[in-house]
């Protein structure tokens, strides 16, 4: 049964955030809100969490997982970014974008694309998510909470708990959340390639 965390959207309660961070360190899989939509999240090294996300979403091994980072300094530990790409990403973060980039050795192999050795990274513009990342001290391994055969992600904390209570360890609810996933930009080839048009404006990448 998933624990339900009611978090204030503008002033997240430090004790509650600390409890969520502790549960993630203990290998919990949670659903949490972002600046685009709800996501599934666990600690980076959680093999169990990865397999549970794959199971919930029916994902194959070519799916790009995302490392949700607190800031650019943290992001830079996990992906290789040249100067031109650096400027493009820096101008777009924090925000509703996921960037596909070559992974560094800090990224567990199970999270990398099997052929490209790439991983997704993003810096969200969301108070609760940022508070959680600060408390955790490392990125969250994440994937959009989009269930198989459904066109839109789940958007309400109570609905997520009702439907996924048996497969999650926690649900973080801080009020309304968006319905549109992030815009995904692949920079692994050096040039910007728009993989998915979502919540982030794509005009600067066209």
What does this entry look like structurally?
The radius of gyration is 16 Å and the shape is globular. The relative contact order is 0.25. With 206 residues, the chain is α/β, with parallel strands linked by helices. The longest helix has 12 residues, at 14-25. The protein is built from six helices and ten strands; from the N terminus they run βαββαβααββαβαβββ. The termini are far apart. This is L-threonylcarbamoyladenylate synthase. Residues 14-200 form the YrdC-like domain. It is an enzyme of class 2 (transferase).
The coarse silhouette is globular
How big a fraction of the residues is strand? 15-25%
Largest sheet, spatial ordering of strands: 1-8-2-3-7-4-6-5-9-10
Could you give the count of β-strands?
A: 10
Helix content: 25-40%
Largest sheet: 10 strands, mixed
Decide which structural class fits the backbone. alpha/beta
Rg estimate, integer Å: 16 Å
What is the overall pLDDT average? 94
How would you spell out the order of helices and strands? EHEEHEHHEEHEHEEE
The poorly predicted ranges are: none
Helix count from the secondary structure assignment: 6
Domain YrdC-like: 14-200
EC number: 2.7.7.87
GO molecular function, one term: L-threonylcarbamoyladenylate synthase
Protein name: L-threonylcarbamoyladenylate synthase
């Amino acid at each position: 049964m998933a624990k339900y965390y009611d978090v204030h959207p503008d002033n997240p309660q430090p004790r509650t955030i600390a409890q969520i961070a502790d549960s993630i360190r203990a290998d919990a899989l949670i659903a949490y809100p972002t600046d685009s939509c709800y996501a599934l999240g666990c600690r980076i090294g959680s093999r169990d969490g990865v397999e549970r996300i794959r199971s919930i979403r029916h994902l194959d091994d070519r799916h790009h997982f995302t490392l949700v980072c607190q800031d650019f300094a943290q992001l830079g530990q996990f992906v290789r970014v040249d100067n031109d790409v650096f400027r493009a990403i820096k101008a777009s973060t924090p925000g509703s974008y996921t960037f596909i980039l070559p992974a560094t050795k800090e990224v567990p192999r199970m999270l990398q694309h099997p052929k490209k050795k790439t991983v997704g990274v993003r810096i969200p513009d969301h108070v609760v998510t940022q508070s959680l990342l600060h408390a955790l001290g490392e990125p969250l391994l994440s994937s959009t909470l989009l269930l198989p055969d459904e066109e839109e992600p789940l958007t309400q904390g109570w609905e997520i708990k009702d439907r996924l209570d048996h497969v999650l360890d926690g649900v973080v609810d801080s009020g309304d959340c968006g319905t549109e996933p992030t815009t995904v930009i692949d920079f692994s080839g050096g040039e910007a390639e728009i993989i998915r048009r979502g919540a982030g404006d794509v005009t600067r990448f066209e």
